[in-house]
Amino acid sequence: MRIDVVSIFPEYLAPLRLSLLGRAQEDGILELEVHDLREFTFDRHRTVDDTPYGGGAGMVMKPEPWALALEAVFTAHSERRGSDRQTERTTLGERPVLIVPSPAGEVFTQALAHELANEPTLAFACGRYEGIDERVLDWARERFEVRPVSLGDYVLNGGEVAVMAMVEAIARLIPGVVGNPESLVEESHSDGLLEYPVYTKPSSWRGLDVPEVLLSGNHGRIAKWRREQQLRRTAARRPELLDGADASQFSGGEREV
Ligand code: ADE
Fold it and tell me: How much distance in Å is there from the Cα of 46 to the middle of ligand 1?
């Protein structure tokens, strides 16, 4: 997969070169390019923002640098998708996806991470200040499938931190990025529920014991216990998730975990 990120703070994205994602880039599984939006300005101050039409606090990101930056990204993605097409990894006529992190977007979920992990290319446009001039998104829709995406119901200072979270969540789903693919199977949200609690040695620590069932060696009992724990935990912390999950095995009882 190729990922392009446009930001006025490219150094913010440096941690994406570390750990498993760094290894994936060394191995050629992931190609990540971070572009400085100011490289697409031509005035002495490398201006990327201006006052909002209609008044109000803060500044709005200007359309011109964004159009140039996104055109450069689009060209790179078209070339990439063209070569993928020859190896039949993408469908003719599909537009590359452009994610615009925004508290006003659809909420990022594990389901969306899976969907995006299947794309051959992804672009991210990090807004700052009060956001990007809306016409940039309208203009970009002719080239990209534009998706404003929110990390959650709170406001960050810009899109960079959201991009780090989304890129990590997406890239770890690409085959070969996480060493043991089985670890993706039983984690939170993989089946719509929160993950069960986990323990390691010693079996007794500061007067606290690992639940007996986990020491039993009985795989059937362990699987049943874990499922019950998932349901209890989800009911206590995120009850709204139970609507979409199969709760038939929930035995009830105490709700807090
Ligand atoms: N930019 C500012 N706040 C954000 C949020 N909650 N999610 C994504 N991008 C953002």
Answer: 24
Among 8, 13, 102, 126, which is best to mutate for testing ligand 1, by the most ligand atoms less than 8 A from CB? 102
Query: Which one-letter amino acid corresponds to residue 94?
Result: E
| Residue 252 in this model has a pLDDT that exceeds 60 | no
Ligand 1 near 53 CB (within 6 A): no
Sign of the Cα torsion 164, 128, 141, 34 reads negative
Supply the ipTM of this predicted assembly.
Answer: 0.97
pLDDT tens-place string over residues 141-182: 999 999 999 999 999 999 999 999 999 999 999 999 998 888
Does the Cβ of 150 fall within 6 Å of ligand 1?
Answer: yes
Domain limits, the chain: 2-171, 186-256
Mean pLDDT on 81-105: 79
Q: Which CATH number is associated with domain 186-256?
A: 1.10.1270.20
Ligand 1 contacts CB of residue 162 (under 6 A): yes
Instruction: Give whole-number Cα distances, 179 to 14, 33, 191, in Å.
Output: 22, 23, 21
Domain covering 2-171 in this structure, CATH number: 3.40.1280.10
Look at residue 86 in the predicted model and tell me its pLDDT: 67
Which two structure tokens, joined as six digits, stand for 11? 């150094």
**β-strand partners of 125:** 6
How far apart CA 107 and CA 103 sit, in angstroms, is 8
For residue 191, CA distances in Å to 2, 100, 197, 245 come to 28, 27, 15, 7
